[in-house]
Amino acid sequence: MPILQSALFKKLMNHLIDFFNKKSILIVDDDHMSALLLKENLKFLNTTLLVAYNTHDAIEIFKSNPDIALVLLDLKFHTGCGYEVAKQMRELSPKVIIIAQTAMAIDEERIKLKHSCFDGYIFKPILSDLLLKTISNLIP
């Protein structure tokens, strides 16, 4: 049974809402539709949802918003690399939660993600209940 239909959903929602109170989430994806879908899936949190469509803007927004608690970061960009962005963000804020979002589900990519600056990963297409579970498992 999907989590969105289960009794655990309310508990999960409250946990997420409490954690993100007065914090921001940064969505980084050069695919505008993917970014919009993530934003739609997270709007219930009543938190600030910031969006960057390239790696340069992602770093600038991150530097300008110290309240960012979570970054949902695509790995592949036309200009730049998600791994490099994650590394820079981790240096600026060691405690920020960074989740990679990728369409590549190959074992080599999983191994690379496991040994990188990412706290977790989620594969596209992103399912709402899996997104919420992944985030919930990474927050205190």
List the helices and strands and how they pair.
Blueprint: H1 8-19, E1 24-28, H2 32-42, E2 48-52, H3 55-64, E3 68-74, H4 82-92, E4 97-102, H5 107-114, E5 120-123, H6 128-138
Parallel strand pairs: 1-2, 1-3, 3-4, 4-5
Characterise the protein shown here:
The protein is 45% helix and 19% strand. By secondary structure, the chain is α/β, with parallel strands linked by helices. It has a 5-stranded parallel beta sheet with strand order 2-1-3-4-5, sandwiched between helices. The longest helix has 12 residues, at 8-19. The protein is globular.
Based on the coordinates given, report the CATH architecture. 3-Layer(aba) Sandwich
Please tell me the total number of domains: 1
Summarize the amount of helix as a percent range: 40-55%
Rg to the nearest angstrom?
14 Å
Based on helices, strands and strand pairing, what is the structural class? alpha/beta
Number of helices: 6
Strand order of the largest sheet: 2-1-3-4-5
